Amino acid sequence: MSGLPVDRVFTLPAAHYPISISAIAAFAAALSGGWSDCLCLPSTDRTESFGMVLLEAMSAAKACVVSDVEGSGMSWLVEDGKTGLVAPTHDINGLAEALCLLRDDPELAATLGQNRRQKFLAALTIEASAEGIRNLYHQLPSVR
Q1: Model pTM score
Q2: For 78-124, what is each residue's pLDDT tens digit?
């Protein structure tokens, strides 16, 4: 297994808050500017319960590799084999294998990324969320 080219690896500081605006701007530029092929979120506990960074990667059509943290929303946002790859929590080799799979199969990475983008557009934009809430209200019985 060969290593990832250093010029294609982009990392943010570990979850030490607050993260600087320049780090966030650099991350956004890396996703949207084509500097990154995928995002890896190897969190190991539920503090990363939903993963806003996963939404950002979804909007940029990037495949994601995440840990399967029980009780988090990560494996809902990243459906294994459909919108990204999910590795068991604390499985470093599983994460590495998933990343290498995406590195070695750019078509798979692109397909997973496009599937993520479609899921984002269908369910997770402001407009889709507002429509879902509006539909929910229309289903409630009217009180007279």
Answers
A1: 0.70
A2: 999 999 999 999 898 999 999 999 989 999 999 999 999 999 888 88
Residue 3 lies in a domain: no
What is the phi-psi region of residue 61: left when phi exceeds 0, alpha when psi lies from -120 to 50, beta otherwise? left
Cα atoms found within 13 Å of the Cα of residue 64, Cβ hemisphere only: 29
Count of domains in the chain?
A: 1
- Residue 78's identity, in one-letter code, is V
Phi-psi region of 92 (alpha: psi -120 to 50; beta: other; left: phi over 0): alpha
CATH number of the domain encompassing residue 134: 3.40.50.2000
Nearest CA among 75, 63, 65, 79 for reference residue 111: 63
Q: How many Cα atoms occupy the beta-carbon half-sphere of 44 within 13 Å?
A: 6
Q: Write out the H or E segment, with its range, that includes residue 66.
A: strand 63-68
